[in-house]
Amino acid sequence: MPAPRNRANVVQRPAVVFKPVQVLEGIDLIADLVKPTLGPLPRLVMVEGVTRNRTPEVLDDAATIARRVIELAQPTVDVGAMMMRHAIWRMHTWCGDGGATMAVMAQAMLRAAVRAVAAGASPVMLRRELERSADQVCANLRAQARPAPLGPQRRTWLDAWMSTTLSDEELRRALIDLVAVLGDDAYINVYNNDPNRIDYEFLEGALWDAPWLSTGFTADPTESVARLQNAAVVVLDGALDTAENMVTLMRRLEAMGYRSAALIASELFESARTVLLQAKLRGLFHPLPIKTPYGGQKRATALHDIAALTGGRVLFAEGIPYAERLTREDVGEARRVWANARQFGIIAGRRDPIALRAIIAGVRRKMEQTADMDELNDLRRRLGQLTGSMGILRVGAPTQKVQEARRDTAERLSRALQLALRGGLVPGGGAALLKASLALAHEPCWGARCVAQALQAPMLTLAENAGLDGRALVARAQHIAAMPNASALGVDVRSGDLADMVERGVLDAVEILERAVRVATSLTVTALTTEVVVHHRKPASSTNP
Q: How far is CA 31 from CA 295, 397, 432, 444, 509, in A?
């Protein structure tokens, strides 16, 4: 006789749902939600407040709208919605723009792919065809790209492109000025400012968010910043510990011809501080102890970056006292070093070009591979430090909520501007995508047809958002794209007439379009090859028996 079943011994197995079609419903739902935001004449999306006393949000940014969707009631539909939500956030993380373009392309591509499978196409074979067709489209887009011009015309191009994305003219011009000067490796630190004011400045050299280790090393006690000129830079993985080490360290640096030094270390002991202060007050030596940036692995990375920027080496406080084994090769140099209670900067360091090139290449590789937004932002900041392309943008607004929105917009669109400089611009408004779709016209496979249909979706949505007949406009635009010597011609949805997209300033960043095509294809392939969705039961409430 079988043993009685005890409730405590029953294994609650996950529920298996064989309804991947509901995944497509979730993808459609989020795509339809962000679709109105696409184009120069977008519509707005209103999101209800979480609580009754909170006013609704009126949004026009696809990533923000998608992030407001937390969970859907139907679990399988929710899986699809979260897939699209994540894909839009990937576009936001990488590009700062293009989320709505990617969403409408993914929706159209997936619908066409589902029809192809229903007609007998193999999902696995279709996956290969989709990926191959996406590669062809990206190559065609790169061939259409025009590099951003130099000089004043660069600002004109960038302003024309940004005007369709950002109506805040003051913020737009500040961003364009910063990125046009700093280049595509720029890192822009965005801070709060006084109400209704936007200020910006270009930072010379590299900046770290780490303070001095003591307030007693300024040239003037009334100043809040300490400065050194033509200084040695000693990078220590450890603490400035004993008086003996400080005396030996200063003597060795003096023997090498240095009268001032920035000493970057994790901690400053009292005995060491006393010796360094006495040397400064007597005019024998001018030290500036600075705290090592960050902690853990980021700390080690920052130390090696500083060493590469100044041409020195990282000293380890182990074994023989570091001051006794200090050599000229260990010491970096900088034309200027400054520090205050929050930050320090190094200007015109004696760079190690070989080490620096290797580090920069490694940072760029990591940026291509990471999908984590925090890590990506750290890498962008690090690249700006290594290339000396850093700026500060201070944003103000009448209310805190508007100020937060302005800051988010500035951080997001600064990335988009950098990509426009890096990869170049193509005729916008969907014209470049339609032209790329012509390259797939003679491909006798399902995947090419699916991708070609997806490339029409942005133009169709742009027209519908502008109140025009989308299908008629797409047919007209396709006819124009097929014409010889019509690489820049397209239909301007703002007026509905034929125009030179470049002259009208209707432009798109080619790297953003490429990323949108690849993310849309990746999402389609994932959804297309999903056969089973597994749901785990939520744990019962502790109040239930």
A: 41, 31, 21, 29, 22
Structure confidence at residue 539 (pLDDT): 67
Tokens in use for 497?
């007439």
Q: Could you tell me which of 32, 140, 108 has the C-alpha nearest to residue 514?
A: 140
Residues paired with 343 in a beta bridge: none
pLDDT digits (tens, 9 = 90+) for 485-544: 766 777 778 877 777 787 777 888 999 999 999 999 999 999 988 888 888 877 655 444
**Sign of the Cα pseudo-torsion (165, 168, 172, 173, in order):** positive
SS3 392: strand
Distance of CA 396 to the CA centre of its chain: 22
The residues near 180 (Cβ < 8 Å, ≥ 6 apart) are 154, 155, 158, 421
The answer to whether domain 16-146+427-528 has CATH 1.10.560.10 is yes
CA distances from 39 to 98, 172, 390, 494 (A): 10, 17, 31, 9
- What dihedral do alpha carbons 480, 132, 38, 26 form, nearest 10°? 140
Domain ranges of the chain: 16-146+427-528, 152-205+388-423, 209-351
- For 316, other C-beta atoms within 10 Å of its C-beta total 12
For residue 314, what pLDDT is reported?
Answer: 94
Model confidence at 446: pLDDT above 50: yes
Nearest alpha-carbon partner for 437 in 449, 420, 421, 422 = 449
DSSP codes joined into one string, 462-473: HHHHTTS-HHHH
Write down the residue that tokens 């969705």 correspond to: 533
Residues 385 and 182 sit within 8 Å (Cβ to Cβ): no
Give the alpha-carbon dihedral of 62, 68, 73, 75, to 10 degrees.
60
What angle (nearest 5°) sits at the alpha carbon of residue 167, between those of residues 429 and 408? 100
Nearest Cα to Cα of residue 203 among 223, 235, 176, 178: 178
Inter-residue contact 110 to 87 (CB < 8 Å): no
Q: Are 120 and 534 in contact (CB under 8 A)?
A: no
As a residue count, the chain comes to 545
Measured CA to CA, the distance from residue 266 to residue 236 in angstroms comes to 8
DSSP conformational letter for 291: E
The beta-strand segments (E) located in 99-160 are: none
Q: Fold for 152-205+388-423, please state it.
A: GROEL; domain 2 (3.30.260)
Strands 260-265 and 225-237: parallel
Q: Which helix (H) or strand (E) holds 260?
A: strand 260-265
Task: Provide the whole-model pTM.
Answer: 0.80
Yes or no: is domain 209-351 CATH 3.30.43.10? no
For residues 148 and 183, give the distance between their C-alpha atoms in angstroms, rounded to a whole number: 11
Whole-number pLDDT of residue 14 = 46
